[in-house]
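Homework-ish question, so no full write-ups if that breaks the rules, but can someone show me the predicted structure for this set?
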Amino acid sequence: MDVNMRSSTHSTKSANSQSSEDESDLRRGPWTVEEDLSLINYIATHGEGRWNSLARCAGLKRTGKSCRLRWLNYLRPDVRRGNITLEEQLLILELHSRWGNRWSKIAQYLPGRTDNEIKNYWRTRVQKHAKQLKCDVNSKQFKDTMRYLWMPRLVERIQAANGVQPTATASTSGGSSITTATGRPAMGYSENFIHAPVNSNFTPENSANSSESFGNQVSDFGDYYGIPVNNQSVSQDYFQGEQVGYGGDYSLTSPNCAYLNNQGMSFQSVDNVMDQNNQQQWDNFGLGDTTDNLWNVDDIYVLQQQFSNM
DNA sequence: AAACGTAGCAACCGCAAATAT
DNA sequence: TATATTTGCGGTTGCTACGTT
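A: Not a homework solution, just the prediction itself:
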């Protein structure tokens, strides 16, 4: 939705709990262009901070909280807008698997993205998939599905979009792993990807130009995540951070590999789960687009069956 | 064409932590 | 040190656009 299309005529309801404001006079609801300009101009001159007094001094009939939120989530010049890229999706899934709903913390690793945006992405896209699969988004089943299906698939899509040719593709039979021209694991997904993306190249602390350095550059993501770019494998030095709680013995590197057989769950190899047609459909999942159309009807059905048999 | 349902997202709320007085 | 105020976070709500019937 074009936010500029949002009504600017919302009524001025009673104010929220900001204690020191003249509550009878505060505006709420969507921001008008004039309000945006006032806030931008004031911050350009005086800087951020002290939001309550800022709101007053800028002549805005808004709470300090509202001003802060508007600035951080929308008006700030380094806010990135638009579709969440494949790389960002992968990162969100990974970081959420580690930290849960720590949106602001996750957002620190997605330069230009706000916690609100990531939270919305999670609620609308990820939870939608859980709903499709008829399982709880916090369930182990769904987390495993993300981990062993969705995330590897995203990796492959990123690689494909970047022109990296895995020697074993998702359409080959199970058990193969993606390798690079050097013979090393292309992604090292099972070994490296799930380890900390906290690396020496990017941290929130050194990300002053983060939106540029990250951008949509798959190569940057490759640096960040250890995804080989242009057939160059990336040093495992990128994965020196803490390990994620993904303990277990697995060697999955792509969706065509065997599903996990973990804690009593008896996943089959994907070749048994999906027939050739499904495999083809799986392969055909919109490479290059940035939507989350990772499941098709058959996949959902099969997964639902898997879950219902547990 | 209208009614209805759903998705996406900006904005609000309440709470807790941090900071100022 | 105690109290007040501000900031930041995660959860939730409500509005609009869009798709479906």
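Now go work out the reasoning yourself. Hint: The first strand of chain A starts at residue 261 and ends at 262.
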